[in-house]
Amino acid sequence: MSVINISGVKKSFSKNKYALKGIDLAIEQGDMVALIGPSGSGKSTLMRHISGLTLADKKTPSEISVFGIPIQQNGKLHKDIRSSRARIGNVFQQFNLISRLSVLTNVLIGGLSRVPTYRSLLGWFTDEEKQEALDALERVGLRDFALQRASQLSGGQQQRVAIARALMQKAEIILADEPIASLDPESSRQVMEILQGINEKDGITVVVTLHQVDYAKKYCRRAVALRQGEIFFDGRINQLSSDQLTQLYGIQQLDQQ
Ligand code: ADP
Ligand code: MG
């Protein structure tokens, strides 16, 4: 069953310059998909469309749905996307956490979409919720950091807190946009292994953008490669040939593979 369905999505930010040139894509439940491609190819724009943070062009018929429920149609946000959004956990490269709050509170916030609005406004958390948040932190190896301020953590640790927050949210899909772009190799490995672990153990569908291919090859099954706003390759990542990689990234990048 596909959990994300995208059809006909075009996006231009300025006249005649298309960030996305007509994207059709279905993501299957439980898959771990790498969205790859050089900088500027449209990866982040596509991710933002799935969450409904960016709207497709109105003049072209298009639809994006999650679990069969539309997020946007023909460039208009569907009227009730609250429940769909609650099923999607976002992990971004930056601006992930509320830096002055504790790690624990940042994780607890992930669960707010599951409680009644009046309580989320008051910011109450039950003991059960606190325990659940501590368990989520345990999963990402940061149980001992619960009471530190988020800003005191390293970049890699902050990404792991963002993943714990998505677990607290009971997200069924995680969209991670360049989660390792600014991390050292050891932190990158930890973040990718955690994403892989929750994909395998919890069956959470993971879509992760990576601007280089090596981590995608190591941790993901399927690759969708974007080039200049178009799908250039879609298939098993080990079937991406070196010729295709050269076309995708140019010769310099290939030398680094
Ligand atoms: P990637 O994530 O693959 O690096 P992006 O999705 O960020 O690529 O960008 C794709 C194209 O869309 C680029 O040409 C970028 O400059 C343009 N773009 C993205 N967001 C905006 C925006 N908010 N305003 C104008 N242009 C944008
Ligand atoms: Mg990007």
From TrEMBL:
<dbReference type="InterPro" id="IPR027417">
    <property type="entry name" value="P-loop_NTPase"/>
</dbReference>
<dbReference type="InterPro" id="IPR003439">
    <property type="entry name" value="ABC_transporter-like_ATP-bd"/>
</dbReference>
<dbReference type="GO" id="GO:0015416">
    <property type="term" value="F:ABC-type phosphonate transporter activity"/>
</dbReference>
<feature type="domain" description="ABC transporter">
    <location>
        <begin position="4"/>
        <end position="253"/>
    </location>
</feature>
<dbReference type="Pfam" id="PF00005">
    <property type="entry name" value="ABC_tran"/>
</dbReference>
<keyword id="KW-1003">Cell membrane</keyword>
<keyword id="KW-1278">Translocase</keyword>
<keyword id="KW-0067">ATP-binding</keyword>
<dbReference type="GO" id="GO:0016887">
    <property type="term" value="F:ATP hydrolysis activity"/>
</dbReference>
<dbReference type="GO" id="GO:0005886">
    <property type="term" value="C:plasma membrane"/>
</dbReference>
<keyword id="KW-0547">Nucleotide-binding</keyword>
<dbReference type="GO" id="GO:0005524">
    <property type="term" value="F:ATP binding"/>
</dbReference>
<dbReference type="InterPro" id="IPR017871">
    <property type="entry name" value="ABC_transporter-like_CS"/>
</dbReference>
<keyword id="KW-0813">Transport</keyword>
<dbReference type="InterPro" id="IPR012693">
    <property type="entry name" value="ABC_transpr_PhnC"/>
</dbReference>
<protein>
    <submittedName>
        <fullName>Phosphonate transport system ATP-binding protein</fullName>
    </submittedName>
</protein>
<dbReference type="InterPro" id="IPR003593">
    <property type="entry name" value="AAA+_ATPase"/>
</dbReference>
<keyword id="KW-0472">Membrane</keyword>
<dbReference type="InterPro" id="IPR050086">
    <property type="entry name" value="MetN_ABC_transporter-like"/>
</dbReference>
